[in-house]
UniProtKB/TrEMBL annotation:
PANTHER family reported for this sequence: ENOYL-COA DELTA ISOMERASE 1, MITOCHONDRIAL, ENOYL-COA HYDRATASE-RELATED
Species for this entry: Popillia japonica (Japanese beetle)
Pathway(s): Lipid metabolism; fatty acid beta-oxidation
Gene Ontology MF annotations: delta(3)-delta(2)-enoyl-CoA isomerase activity
Protein name: Enoyl-CoA delta isomerase 1, mitochondrial
UniProt key word Isomerase: yes
Entry function: Key enzyme of fatty acid beta-oxidation. Able to isomerize both 3-cis (3Z) and 3-trans (3E) double bonds into the 2-trans (2E) form in a range of enoyl-CoA species, with a preference for (3Z)-enoyl-CoAs over (3E)-enoyl-CoAs. The catalytic efficiency of this enzyme is not affected by the fatty acyl chain length.
Gene3D superfamilies xref list: 2-enoyl-CoA Hydratase, Chain A, domain 1, 6.10.250.170
Localization, UniProt: Mitochondrion matrix
Primary residence: mitochondrion
Catalytic function, reaction form: (3Z)-dodecenoyl-CoA = (2E)-dodecenoyl-CoA; (3Z)-octenoyl-CoA = (2E)-octenoyl-CoA; (2E)-tetradecenoyl-CoA = (3Z)-tetradecenoyl-CoA; (3Z)-decenoyl-CoA = (2E)-decenoyl-CoA
Oligomeric and partner information: Homotrimer.
Keyword Isomerase among record annotations: yes
């Protein structure tokens, strides 16, 4: 029965593991035919920073999964210590306006896709997850994070401002008060601190442990009507989704306009230099 549920690529038709697999340069997708769970792996070394190409491939992969009957999808990273370093700062530093527009639109679209998937989603956060990395995790339905890493919306530390839908993503998960304290100070939480405030749902010893725990999360829905589950998700997330859909152009204009400010470019310059000096 399970084997009929998934489309397999020709190249793996004789694979005894009966696993769907599709890999682009920056995103790998595999579906375990036995469990029905898809694993979407970001693979852009050294830090999985989210540039236009990675976001475009990620959005495409998440959309493709919508047409397959999967039990759920796990978003994770191929890197040993980093889930995602967030937006690629080089996309924002001295940008060409057309590239900056395409980049921001791809981020908006990826978030909209991930926030509204018909299938359940888990972020298996197997490394640091600042800013845009945190945003992707927040768009999933459940977050499991490996111990001793950091997560949060630290935009103010870069002299930039988290847009309203980043803030809403946070406020839909942790309290308004905690969001205010965290966002204004650009706080990055350690794994155990993130658990305490509810920013993540579970901790894990390592990536394998996180993946095993994700499987258990999906099992919660075994006895739940999938349509009822999806309609409930839409009810809970619909308002936030609609707000970005309605204000997409305004949000894009603000982003591009913001990047053109000399003070913002100066802030990014200082931050980039500090990152490089770290070594
Ligand atoms: C009024 C309202 C108006 C609203 C307008 C909108 C405003 C704009 C909103 C934009 C929102 C932005 C969201 C973001 O995601 S910004 C990115 C934030 N990310 C970070 O702060 C993370 C920075 N990186 C790190 O802290 C560390 O690199 C990390 C802990 C992730 C890993 O540490 P590690 O020691 O393992 O690795 P290195 O630091 O040595 O890094 C290796 C190389 O990678 C480069 N790097 C790191 N992060 C980034 C990045 N995000 N983008 C680009 N490049 C990155 C780093 O410089 C090293 O490069 P080199 O090898 O060349 O030195």
């Amino acid at each position: 029965m399970a084997s009929r549920m998934f489309i397999r690529s020709k190249s793996i038709a004789f694979n005894t593991l009966r696993t769907y697999s599709s890999s682009t340069k920056l995103v790998d997708v595999s579906i375990n035919d036995k469990t029905g769970i898809a694993t979407v792996t970001m693979q852009r070394p050294p830090v999985n920073s989210l540039n236009l190409e990675l976001l475009t491939e990620l959005n495409g992969a998440l959309q493709d999964l919508g047409s397959k009957k999967i039990k759920g999808a796990i978003l994770t990273s191929s890197l040993k210590t980093i889930f995602s370093a967030g937006l690629d700062i080089l996309e924002m530093y001295k940008p060409k306006p057309e590239r900056a527009s395409a980049f921001w639109t791809s981020l908006q679209d990826t978030w909209l896709t991930l926030y509204s998937t018909p299938y359940p989603t888990v972020a298996a956060i197997n490394g640091h997850s600042p800013a845009g990395g945190c945003l992707l995790s927040l768009a999933c339905e459940y977050r499991i994070m490996v111990n001793n890493y950091t997560i949060g919306l630290n935009e103010t530390k870069l002299g930039i401002v988290a847009p309203f839908w980043f803030v809403a993503s946070m406020k839909n998960v942790i309290s308004h008060r905690e969001s205010e304290l965290a966002l204004t100070s650009g706080r990055l939480y350690k794994t155990d601190e993130a658990l305490k405030v509810g920013l993540i749902d579970e901790t894990a010893e390592n990536k394998d442990d996180a993946l095993a725990k994700a499987e258990k999360f999906f099992a919660r829905f075994d006895a739940v009507n999938p349509i009822a589950r999806l309609l409930t998700k839409q009810e809970l997330r619909g308002e936030t989704i609609k707000e970005l859909e309605d204000r997409k152009q305004e949000d894009l204009d603000r982003f591009v306009g913001f990047l053109m400010l000399p003070a913002v470019q100066k802030g990014l310059d200082v931050y980039l230099q500090a990152l490089k000096k770290k070594q």
